[in-house]
Amino acid sequence: QSALTQPPSASGSPGQSVTISCTGTSSDVGGYDYVSWYQQHPGKAPKLMIYDVGKRPSGVPDRFSGSKSGNTASLTVSGLQAEDEADYYCSSYGGSNNLKFGGGTKLTVL
Amino acid sequence: EVQLLESGGGLVQPGGSLRLSCAASGFTFSSYAMSLVRQAPGRGLEWVSTISGSGATTYYTDSVKGRFTISRDNSKSTLYLQMNNLRADDTAVYYCAKRADSTGYWFTLDYWGQGTLVTVSS
Lengths: 110, 122
What we know:
The complex is a heterodimer. Chain A is mostly beta strands. Chain A has no helices and nine strands. Chain A is 0% helix and 44% strand. The termini of chain B are far apart.
């Protein structure tokens, strides 16, 4: 049950766009359109930002978008704002009633 | 307003046991699968276990099978995790989380509690 692979860090200046990748296999990310992204500020609980690859829950700004190509999913944050600085985790259904998370990416707004 | 409040964490010796609770409010508890996700200090998220709304179906990650038991009391809107034979690598903040309204799938989690810290150490 290997974790999904995310870059440990990403950064961008206010107003810019940044993309965070999440790489799995054909048994998880590539096999299902069930990728989610969570935002976690220090000491806080995770917050659902994207589900089913590219859908946004109510209340999540449309600056956040998700996509997938093959075994790699991506989260793009456009028009970066200071409050976007946080850790981001991807998750994917892994088949056989298993849920996998990525190792997390620390997004820094410069 | 959805609220999830975990309790029961603490310091326990290797081989010991602990029972976590997650009190839920603000939604029809019995209608939703509930999950537990943990986060070791300074590390990423790891799914631990899930239970269906009725309690009839449970899932576990391999590393806790045979040691942890998830259960729920729908009359009390409370989720439980009984943890036995604890190991040092079980040390983590344990979050309970609710299945998202926007999907019918247990693996999308829209509300999370604030977590309870479990420390396994001698």
